[in-house]
Write a structure and sequence with these properties.
DNA-binding; Transcriptional regulator, DeoR family; seven-stranded parallel beta sheet; Carb_Metab_HTH_regulators; about 260 residues; 10 helices; 15 strands; Rossmann fold
Length: about 260
């Protein structure tokens, strides 16, 4: 296995499990313990983790795995979430907002097949998916780009978003819980996402099960600001019930069985 593949696998385990054990990772990846230790040292040097005795952990509550490492993790579930989320969007003319993220990337790929849409986005990865679609009018906000999320944030982004009346916003998020609402790793990104949400008549949050029940550094909005949550069957049922009790329509998507 090439180093780049090992690094991606290690970061996947760290992002979704919280810790990495050297011995376990060596066994699962089919390499020596010494090789895994060198990989962890490399990632520690890049501030992507913190070495511990026998392994590694995420750097802190603000730890955020870059999009390039997250894109293929749980893709079948994210595709199913996107398909279900798009059921909320009837055919015809709509102004849609989409923020950054791996699940919203799957939403964008489905939006690319629609016509008569105006899509407003503050995310470079979303813009990249839609820019060559002549039947989709694409509006990119500008702003300061964040390398981890590919989102453009700050006053410039918010000024452009504020000029649009959005019918439906599809929002990806780092954490959603009954106690804390929506949260993310960066306070500026949180504010920009809150502005996007505030311009929409309907807000659909798309989040895989790993995001349910989590709370991160920066608060975005409370649950009273969203209409629907679309997730997958790996989400904590008790947390989903608590979210639904606050008036959010919760939908659980199932991947297509082949």
């Amino acid at each position: 296995m090439h180093r780049s593949d090992r690094v991606t696998a290690i970061l996947d385990r760290l992002a979704y499990g919280g810790t990495v054990d050297v011995t376990t990772a060596a066994r699962e990846l089919g390499v020596s313990v010494a090789t895994i230790r060198r990989d962890l040292t490399l990632l520690d040097d890049q501030n992507l983790l913190v070495r511990t005795r026998g392994g590694a952990v995420g750097r802190d509550v603000a730890y955020e795995l870059p999009v390039r490492y997250r894109d293929n993790h749980g893709r079948a579930a994210k595709q199913a979430i996107a398909r279900m989320a798009l059921r909320a969007l009837a055919p015809g003319r709509h102004v849609v907002a989409v923020n950054g993220g791996t699940t919203t990337s799957e939403v964008a790929r489905l939006l690319a097949t629609r016509t008569e849409l105006t899509v407003v986005t503050n995310a470079l990865n979303i813009a990249g998916i839609l820019v060559n679609r002549p039947k989709v009018k694409l509006v990119v906000t500008g702003g300061v780009a964040r390398s981890n999320s590919y989102e453009m944030v700050g006053p410039w982004a918010e000024t452009i978003v504020g000029r649009f009346n959005v019918d439906t916003a599809f929002i990806g998020i780092d954490g959603i819980s009954a106690a804390s609402g929506l949260s993310t790793h960066d306070e500026v990104e949180a504010h920009t996402n809150a502005v996007i949400i505030g311009r929409a008549r309907r807000v659909v949050v798309v989040a895989d099960g790993s995001k349910i029940g989590r709370t991160h550094l920066a608060h975005v909005v409370g649950l009273d600001a969203i209409d629907q949550l679309v997730t997958d069957a790996s989400a904590d049922p008790a947390e989903l019930q608590a979210i639904a009790a606050q008036g959010v329509a919760v939908r659980i998507a199932e991947p297509v069985r082949r």
